[in-house]
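tool_log.txt
---
The assistant was asked to compare two proteins side by side. It first ran the structure predictor on the initial sequence, then on the second. Raw inputs and outputs are pasted verbatim so the downstream comparison step can read them without reformatting.
(1)
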Amino acid sequence: MVYSTVFSEEGLEELRRIITVRDDTGEEFEALPPDTDDATIDRLAERILPAVLRMREEHPRSNGPVADSPRGAELAGNAMAHAAAEFYNPAQLRVLRRLHHLLDQATDPHDDPPGHGAVHDSAPDVRLREE
């Protein structure tokens, strides 16, 4: 598993606590077909957003999960991106990019509110770009 090679022991334990919390969006994300339309991508990302914001508040380490990686943050981030590209289908990756954009908006008061200015394949998160 990639996680055990890139996270510190503390980071891995935090991840275990985080992933025990499940909701219907997780199941919907997992079942998402590769050819899902943009409107569905947007709706799912917007439904996931509150849970991720809550998780980040309850688990501050989740804001920079590889910051204390024994292999270094950059290498760990690259490994996680490659694992995501292998593990998730194109629509799931689009949800993650859209979610990343929504998270940026939620933490930057100068951006448009969530739900405005949808971003799909041109999202700024190069860590999740399909290769």
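(2)
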Amino acid sequence: MTRAVCWGVLDNITSMMHPVFLLEAGVQRIMGSGSAFSHNAVLRQEAKRVFPLPVEYGQDVDSAVGVAMVFHDRLPSPVTFSPTSPR
């Protein structure tokens, strides 16, 4: 049952980020983060099975950190905000 649920989760992820698309985009590795990966060996095994790239996992890393890592290199230089004028 656990493997089927994990397979379903990864099937959903790969339907949004197909492994072929990732390869064509130049992705060289998959970085898994969050408690789902850190606490579930079956999910880690299934991720390695469905992605044709090396799969690495952060230790005690929140999934938001994974998202930040993805977008870090894709965002333009840091934006500086100036205080807004009073209304």
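---
observation on (2): Strands lie at 30-32, 55-57. The mean pLDDT is 80.
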